[in-house]
From TrEMBL, chain A:
Organism: Actinoplanes regularis
Record GO cellular component, one term: plasma membrane
Domain of life: Bacteria
GO MF: transmembrane transporter activity
Name this protein carries in UniProt: Amino acid/amide ABC transporter membrane protein 1, HAAT family
CDD domains xref list: TM_PBP1_LivH_like (cd06582)
Chief place of localization: membrane
GO biological process: amino acid transport
UniProtKB/TrEMBL annotation, chain B:
PANTHER family named among the record's database cross-references: HIGH-AFFINITY BRANCHED-CHAIN AMINO ACID TRANSPORT ATP-BINDING PROTEIN LIVF
Domain ABC transporter: 17-250
Family from the record: Belongs to the ABC transporter superfamily.
The protein, known as: Branched-chain amino acid transport system ATP-binding protein
Organism: Actinoplanes regularis
GO MF terms held by the record: ATP binding; ATP hydrolysis activity; branched-chain amino acid transmembrane transporter activity
GO biological process, one term: L-amino acid transport
A family per Pfam: ABC_tran
């Protein structure tokens, strides 16, 4: 039982990161109908920048902020310089371009920082508090929950309570109609990429120090889990992304805890297959709304 | 209450929209050829013609969704060609597209507020919003419903109401009667008349339903294969049997 409780908290903590990363994927999917396969590489680039700033200044928080700002700017650059010009006649075009970006970003990072794994510090201790003899969660886990929770709340408020959020949703659902109503659709798209890339960078900053270490391909594994989370939730649904992230986190934690870490990636793929067979639109798909 | 300058009959007013020699289309082969037409403040002009005559393309070209190849589109004396689509609403042009353009994923209230987001005058945007709810009580009751839950008539009211929130001077209205019961169509056309009386709104109305379009319009422009074949008063068009048979099918 103790072990179950521990694995549950551990799973939720990992899941929170996947949730953030899946949320970033969903943001871009909703805005541009592109699955941004380059998101992992972009996030790693932002993490490198963050830890470079931390090394120079000695402040984790300056590095943390720098990473998010760099992520935001990288998102803008990628949309304005690359993705804007992708031909949408086939959905594969965006995917291929994004995969090309992955190679470029990872190559540049390798040139600039080298291809070796670099261990990086967490801002808080990772040993778990014990409550009644059971190890529950660490200070770092609390930080992860707080950071992801803050992002989810902020995005929810942005999209449901502000004029910019209304413009962004309208631009995504009905670009031509939105333009006729004076919405700068291109600008909303850029903003979507910027926000998504910043959220992806946050996920990178949270996950890289825990298990991966800094390396140009550090986020590849996370991307697979987060992509599964996003698909499980239904690519269109932010709530689905968060729920999917937590489900994937728990699954990974239970499977690696009870069956061994080596089978965990298979469990994620199995989940993906089961969801795609049973509910191809994802658990929270809004297909009803779209068909009507 | 009448808007300024509306005391004289509309025929004598300075044109609001003047289209000359407009050629436009999608790619190599133009859909519209040398189209000319004029809309004056407070005037309702019906664009008539068979399927594929270029009626929808004409509206889409005027609002910038389709690029004009050549010709002149003057609105209030200023050239509209090259003006970005998202600027049209700021100039006073509202386009209610074919299929109404309700954002079905958003609620009624969100759709309406979207129509006023560009406005600097927030107080007047809020006033316009409540006027639309007064004009269409059915929408006020369904404020929180998603667009996809609305009936066809409610969607048309929503699209029209959303356009009015921008307090346009020219309304480009594409097939408002499509899929609507005759009663609802009549209501909407009566509303157009009322609006032009009260606010001097000019309307360029694309309609398949020629009878109802001519019942509300002052003038009609008949398009055939992208060319203007006749411009005349609505009354004369109704009486011109040969023309009706040739181009309008009744």
């Amino acid at each position: 039982m103790d072990r179950f409780v521990y694995l549950t908290f551990d799973g939720l903590s990992r899941g929170a990161v996947y949730a953030a990363f899946a949320l970033a994927l969903v943001l871009i999917w909703r805005a541009a109908r592109i699955v941004n396969f380059a998101q992992g590489a972009m996030a790693v680039a932002a993490v490198y920048v963050g830890y470079s700033v931390t090394e120079k200044t000695g402040s984790y928080w300056l590095g943390f902020a720098a990473s998010l700002v760099f992520g935001l700017l990288l998102g803008i650059a990628v949309e304005k310089a690359v993705m804007r010009f992708v031909d949408h006649s086939s959905p594969l075009n965006g995917v291929v371009v994004a995969l090309g970006l992955v190679l470029i970003v990872q190559g540049v990072l390798g040139i600039l920082y080298g291809n070796e794994y670099r261990p990086v510090e967490t801002p808080f201790r990772r040993d778990a508090f014990e409550v009644g003899g059971v190890a529950l969660l660490s200070r770092y886990d609390v930080f992860v929950f707080a950071a992801v929770g803050a992002v989810v709340v902020a995005l929810t408020v942005l999209f449901t309570r502000t004029p910019v959020g209304l413009r962004m949703r309208a631009a995504a659902f009905a670009p031509d109609v939105s333009r006729l109503l004076g919405v700068p659709v291109g600008g909303m798209l850029t903003l979507g990429w910027a926000l998504a890339a910043a959220v992806g960078s946050l996920a990178g900053m949270l996950v890289v120090p825990t298990e991966l270490g800094l390396h140009p391909t550090a986020m590849d594994v996370v991307f697979v889990s987060a992509f599964t989370a996003a698909v499980v939730g239904g690519l269109d649904s932010p709530i689905g992304a968060v729920t999917g992230g937590l489900i994937v986190g728990l699954l990974l934690s239970y499977v690696s805890g009870y069956l061994g870490a080596t089978v965990a990636p298979m469990a994620v793929l199995l989940l993906l297959v089961v969801v795609l067979l049973g509910r191809p639109g994802g658990l929270f798909s809004s297909s009803k709304a779209r068909l009507a | 209450m009448k808007a300024a300058g509306l005391d004289e009959p509309y025929q004598k007013r300075t044109p609001l929209l003047e289209v000359e020699d407009l050629t436009a289309g999608y790619g190599a082969a133009p859909v519209l050829h040398d189209v000319r037409l004029t809309v004056r403040p407070g005037e309702i002009v019906a664009v008539l013609g068979a399927n594929g005559a270029g009626k929808t393309t004409l509206l889409r070209t005027l609002s910038g969704l389709v690029r004009a190849d050549h010709g002149r589109i003057a609105f209030d004396g200023e050239e509209l060609r090259g003006v970005r689509v998202e600027q049209m609403v700021r100039r006073g042009i509202a386009h209610v597209p074919e299929g109404r353009g309700v954002v079905t994923e958003l609620t009624v209230d969100e759709n309406l507020r979207l129509g006023g987001l560009w406005r600097r005058d927030r107080a007047d945007a809020a006033r316009a919003l409540s006027e639309v709810y007064d004009l269409f009580p059915a929408l006020a009751q369904r404020r929180a419903s998603a667009g996809h839950q609305l009936s066809g008539g409610e969607r048309q009211m929503l699209a029209l109401g959303r356009a009015l929130i921008g307090r346009p001077r020219l309304l480009l209205l594409d097939e408002p009667s499509l899929g609507l019961a005759p009663m609802v169509t009549a209501q909407i056309l009566a509303l157009l008349r009322d609006l032009r009386e009260r606010t001097g709104l000019a309307v360029l109305l694309v309609e398949q339903n020629v009878r109802s379009a001519l019942s509300v319009a002052d003038e009609g422009v008949v398009l055939s294969l992208g060319r203007v074949v006749t411009r005349n008063s609505a009354a004369d068009l109704r009486d011109d049997a040969a023309l009706r048979h040739a181009y309008l099918g009744f």
